[in-house]
Amino acid sequence: MSTILLNPGPVTLSRRVREAMLRPDLCHREPEFSDLQSGIRRKLLAVYGLDPGEWAAVLLTGSGTSAVEAMLGSLVPADGELVVVENGAYGERMSQIAVAHRIACTPVRHGWEDAVDPSRLRAALARVSLPAHRIALVHHETTSGRLNDLAVAGPGGRTSLLLDAVSSFGAEQIDFTGLAACASTANKCLHGVPGVSFVLLRRSLLEGSDPRRGLYLDLAAHCRAQDAGDTLFTPAVQACYALDEALTELDGAGGWTVRRARYRALMEHVRGRLIELAVEPLLPEGDCSCVLSAFRLPHGLSYERLHDGLKRNGFVIYAGQGRLAAGIFRIAVMGEITDPDMERLLGALSAVLG
Question: Are 79 and 214 in contact (CB under 8 A)?
Answer without folding.
Answer: no
